[in-house]
Amino acid sequence: MTPLIITAAVNGSTKRARNPNVPLAPHEIVADALECMKAGAAIIHTHIEDYHMTGQVAADRYLESYRPIVQARPDAILCPSATIADTVELRWKYLEILAESGVMRMGTLDPGSLNIANSGENGLPGSYREVYCVPFPEIEYLLELHTRGHIGPVLSIYGPDHLHATMAYHRAGRMSPGALPHLYFAGDHNSMDMVKGGFNHFGLLPTRTGLEAYLEIIGDSTLPWSVAIPGGDVTGTGLSRLAIERGGHVRVGIEDYAGDDKPTNRQLVAQVVALAREIGRPIAGPREAAEILGLPRR
User: Where residue 178 sits, what CATH number does that domain have?
Assistant: First the structure.
């Protein structure tokens, strides 16, 4: 069976009040990323503290942690998050700079749009309500940027419509090399405010039926895929096991995790590694993961 690729989403917008183990400062991200890779993670996904940082400022902030990671582990596969800006060009300029730096092998692409909100009363949307919009022209702009920058896209699949778009570009030969869709499933916490039982605004349910529904859209394609539960527990729900058994890959990390305890990223990675060993599936290191995904080289 194809070795398992584990992605560690190490921080996101998580504050220390939610989990004191979250790495926030660059030196903390470096140490945490190296520990996760030692434990079995092949891809490290990070955020910077301010989504409104753009261009060179955002790139430099990422590079404060990315350069030391690559210095210690030249095989590291690093993936940043998105920024917020008024134009597509300004929003993604940092990604172009990071690609040119040579330290980053994967970028980010959310192929669609959805309504997002925090939690209100009785499971309804709260006071923060937005449309997170990535229309087709921006998707095509990002595909061209990834291809030109020789980086593979990590695609956030918030629901079936995102996956339909992904597969359309893939089947038409327009998907950038090295793509990895993360199939998102609905957690029992709102992924924005982490309120348990709060408004749930994306993702199929983390069940065998939910997974099979996504996989039916993927069909007989050989495109690799991974599962994640932002606002939940991908391993505790049994979804990690289902994905590992079906030949998929797994994303874990403090960014996504919602539960009663306060795990470290290394502990969350180790849980998936132990499960894979129980099932009899080998773990992919970064070099193997790059080969499985077909990540481009400059």
Answer: 3.20.20.70
Tell me the two tokens of residue 199.
């408004």
Range of the domain at 208: 6-108+133-193+202-293
Is there a contact between 127 and 120 (Cβ–Cβ < 8 Å)? yes
151-204 pLDDT tens trace = 999 999 999 999 999 999 999 999 999 999 999 999 999 999 999 999 988 999
Q: Are 101 and 63 in contact (CB under 8 A)?
A: yes
Looking at the whole model, is its pTM more than 0.85? yes
DSSP letter for 2, please.
Answer: P
Please tell me the distance from the alpha carbon of residue 251 to that of residue 244, in angstroms, as a whole number. Answer: 11
SS (H, E, C) 202-271: CCECCCHHHHHHHHHHHCCCCCCCEEECCCECCCCCCHHHHHHHCCCEEEECCCCECCCCCCCHHHHHHH
